[in-house]
Amino acid sequence: MDAATTNEVPELKLHFLDYWRVIRLRRSLIVMVFLLCVVTSTLLTFWLPKQYASTVRIEVQKDTPEIPVAEGGRMNAYGSDPYFLTTQFKIIESYSILTNVITTLHLDDKLAAQAGETHWSMEQAYQALFSRISVEQTRMTSLIEITVRNSDPKLAADIANAIVDAYRDARLEKWKGDRFSGINALQAKLSEEQARQATLESNLNELRVSLQISDMDEESPVGSSLIETEQLREYQHEETMALTDYLEYSNILAGLSTIPTSELGAALPTAYAHQSDGELSELSIRRDMARDKMAAAENDYGPKHTEYVTSQKQFKEAQRDYDNKVAGIITGLRERVEIDRQNMMLVQGLKSDLEKRRNELARKNQPYFSLKRTIEDLRRNNEALNSTIQREVAEVGQPLKSIVIVRDPARPVLRPVSPKTMVIIPFGIFVGLIVGISLAFFIEYLDTSVKTIDDVEQALQAPVLGVIPQNIGNILEEGAETPHAEAYRVLRTNILFSRKNESWNTVSVLSGGAGEGKTTTLFNLAVVFAQNGQRVLVVDSDLRRPAIHKLLHVSNTIGLTDFLLKQRTLDEIIQKTKMPTLDFIASGKLPSSSMSILGSAQMKETIQELKRRYDFIFFDSPPLLGVSDASILASEMDMVLQVIQYRRYPQPMTLRAKQMILKVGGNLVGIVLNNINMSQDENYYYYSGYYEYGAQAKDQTVVQLSDAAKEAKIDIKQKY
Question: Which run of H or of E encompasses 147?
Fold first, then answer.
């Protein structure tokens, strides 16, 4: 199998019939939950007492005077306070409001009488009343609805109207007390702040004199003069210009320094356009004319003629004048760069000195300007506080606008609002169906164990080679003609058909967890192979919990570990059984590190030696998950079988075990389903009749049944 088979879990697509199967399987649970919900909802509608509701609608305004006096006109709308109505809801439901209603209407006696008692305490009456009222906003309006529920419709209306009266009285009393106490507190605060302002202003004047701050300096936010600020801007501009000139000429000089001396004259007009004057051009023309004249004299008169000597002397003089001119230009450029550098450093020094003076002045004057800003903030706060006091004093003298307006008083309503029969019973039916079906699917979801062959083949993508029934014993002791033996003969036949190479003869039966029947399956399968006349060896390589020696009733003192540790020879550890074709190697004593022994070269050589001696060798091992010995053995076996016990471990665990086999390079030929209840599970009923019939047949019939089993697997080699 490739890596994709190892890592990818196939997607299990559920058909509609699969959902229907779950509903049918759990139908008793669904019906029970459905009936329970329906009966409960029906009884609830008859058991609950009838309740009547009365509602009063009011309009609530903020505490504002009839004539607005604040700037901008403090309007009485509460749109700017999104929590105003919510706050009023809580006030209406408060203890003080409701206890006033209880006292006014004597509800401590009336509510107690409705409950079959004579008298309630104030706390009991409050709790009962609080649970029967609801306050909310009328949709798409600013009105408040106060709804009261009670078994007496007239009493419900009286309570609703009484709540409005108590709320209105509480608002008026609170408004009066808040106004006067607020004005007194504001006036005291203003006096305190004005005294503090006067003290700070006195300190400010003293600080100004001590720091010698002039009127011009005081206008500056940092305390520096405007002249220094303007001079700093000029220094910054001069620094920029000096830096520009320095970079320009230093770059030109750097570029000319890379040009050979003989080519400087030609490069100067382009690279240094500032000095491309006519004198250099004239010297260049003069040098070229002298060169041409010297060349003509050499051709006409020869190198020794006086005409050639004269022209040669003129050429050298022209070349010298030209070179001197070029050198002078380069020297002048270097002097220009140095002058620009010194000018830039001078400007930077002047700028730095000025900044230091400004910073020192700002540091020295900082206390003054900080105190000045504090006084300005305090002055603004005092002005705002004084304005607030004047506004509040004016509002106290204005007539108060009504803050609670009843728009729709409560009236007795004779139609009960609860219990709602047409809502409770359909809701019970709906909840019963949803909860019943959901509970059924939830229980099915929790059961992730292996149930059918399709579960294994879809989840593991591996063929099921055998189905082993419950209560399997020792085939060696029970005999070859038992129904249990036939199940192992079918498994043996399918293994032989799944074998792709006739030389494969080492087999290991592995499982993901403990208790899945791995050791019993391996031992009985080895017995069936031995009963077929093949020379078989069983090796108990489960060094941690050896068990096969108990099935054979032999000793475990000498075994595989003694040979691997070179304490015994191979012939000394091989034990004979009562079946001539079946031999056995016990595990021996458990060494300190069984992993290093099973993965040693000695173990690999032992396996190869046993392959030459026997037709088939079966190696028992510990569970795959949690123990590394099984993975080591799986990598060395020709064929590996994975045992999965029916309805024991979840499918992800079996899938993990399969992935571990493939990860170490094990050759997984198929799956064995173990511990199947043939008589109760309809998915495996046909196996029960098949095995019973096989137990009564002769050897020839067994061969025919094996052929039938081969056909039932639908050609394993082609399918997988």
Answer: strand 143-150
> CB of 618 within 8 A of CB of 508?
yes
- CA dist 688 and 464 (Å) reads 17
Mean per-residue pLDDT for 276-299? 79
Nearest-Å Rg of the Cα atoms of the chain is 54
Least confident of 325-334, 556-565, 585-594, 612-621: 585-594
Angle at 19 (CA atoms; ends 18, 24), nearest 5 degrees? 95
- Report whether 133 contacts 93 (CB < 8 A): yes
For residue 120, the 8-state DSSP code is -
Give the 3-state secondary structure of residue 53. strand
User: Distance from CA of residue 530 to its chain's centroid?
Assistant: 58
Higher pLDDT, 32 or 263: 32
- Contact predicate 644/465, CB 8 Å: no
Q: Where are the alpha helices (DSSP H) in 397-451?
A: 421-446
Burial environment of residue 535 by CB neighbours within 10 A (0 to 12, 13 to 18, 19 or more): middle
Separation of CA 283 from chain center: 82
Residue 15 φ/ψ region, left for φ over 0, alpha for ψ in the -120 to 50 degree band, beta for the rest: beta
Residue 366: how many CA atoms within 13 Å on its side-chain side?
6
Separation CA 262–CA 264 (nearest Å):
6
E strands present in 541-602: 574-576, 582-585
Strand partners, 584: 538, 575
Tokens of 442: 């939830």
Strand order in the sheet with 582-585: 464-469, 668-676, 639-645, 506-511, 616-620, 536-540, 582-585, 574-576
**Side chain identity at 92, as an amino acid letter?**
I
251's tokens:
């770059």
Residue type, 300: D
Scanning 258-305, the segments in alpha helix (DSSP H) are 264-271, 278-300
Largest CA-CA distance found in the chain, in angstroms, rounded: 156
Q: Hey, what are 716's tokens?
A: 């394993």
- Copy the structure tokens of residue 613: 């001696």
Alpha-carbon span 292 to 287, nearest angstrom: 9
Half-sphere exposure (Cβ direction) of 473: Cα atoms closer than 13 Å: 8
Residue 521, Ramachandran bin (φ over 0: left; ψ between -120 and 50: alpha; else beta): alpha
pLDDT digits (tens, 9 = 90+) for 607-650: 999 999 999 999 998 888 877 788 888 888 999 998 888 777 77
Q: Which amino acid is at 18?
A: D
Of 445, 446, 455, which is closest to residue 645 (Cα–Cα)? 455
Peptide bond into 580 cis (omega under 30): no
**Is the four-CA dihedral 366, 367, 373, 377 of positive or negative sign?**
positive
pTM of the full structure: 0.43
Residues in the chain, total: 720
Can you tell me which residue has the tokens 């599970």? 681
44-91, pLDDT tens digit by residue?
888 888 889 999 999 888 765 544 444 444 444 444 577 888 888 899
Distances (CA, A) of 21 to 25, 432, 554, 677, 679: 6, 20, 50, 20, 20
Q: Which of 476, 472, 556, 478 is nearest to 521 (CA)?
A: 472
The DSSP bridge pattern shows strands 464-469 and 536-540 to be unpaired
